[in-house]
Predict the 3D structure of the following.
Amino acid sequence: MDPVKQGEIPVFDLASFGEDHARLGVALGLAARDTGFFCVTTHRIDAQLNANVFAQSADFFAERAERKSALSIKHTGNNRGYVALGEERLDAAKPGDVKEAFNIGWDLPPDHPEVVSGKPYRGVNVWPDAATAPNFRPTMLAYFDACHQLGMQLHRALAHDLGVPENFFDDKLDQPLATLRLLHYPPRPDRFEPGQIGAGEHTDYGNITLLATDDAGGLEVRTRDGQWMSPPNIPGALICNIGDCLMRWTNDVYVSTPHRVVNPVGRERYSVAFFLDPNPDAVVDCLPSCITAERPAKYPTTTGAAYLKSRLDATYSHREKA
């Protein structure tokens, strides 16, 4: 493995590490402390499954507006369902994002105790009509599961780097507040509102994000010196980044880096993001290995659900006011 150069987004071939989570943890830890971004290849997520997800996503976003709106996040609740163009504002100081999305969470039946009790973010998923999209649900759930397993693997590696047992995160991520998010960015219009882009500058909320993209480009990452750069475009690779919750867990040892998406010119952009947030009741507290006399704990204890709520409330506050 080549050494990671400061300010770059490294690419890691996971097959080259085998089951050596400790060695992988060293590599990921260096990236997590620097840009907070890295790419992984040979990650065991089937290429055909990935292609099917993108095909199903494109079909969904091509549906008539009324069919998509019937699944709107505004009335489905629990951060599930369809998000229309301009409805989300990731940069609270800017106009709404020029993108649409569809959110899928941990799949629970209607009679699950956490659903029946109304536990936050533990509702049922909503789905397009099975008569017109019979493969949508099984495809998305298979991909959700594959991303979840990969996310757990990466956390086992990071645990070594953070000086905690390899299985430290296992019982904190086994029933996660994870979201599989399908994203569609229309071509760049002739004129934006001032400050408006596809996805405003933001950091992700959870522990780790796994992003699959097409070849349209548009993702930009802000370096420590304030410059913007694009991750490498490698077919089949996943672009991964540290989220705010893991940054909080590590007492800011790991970096959650601002990024944005600019709509491409003359073509659409599709991407699929898997946001791995911890279990609702997982206790998120600064790891003792990340606290020193010179670096005392910066954050009070919270839980996975409480932290996610605080971030989602800020993202959609403009909609509630409206």
In short: The CA atoms of residues 208 and 242 lie 5 Å apart.
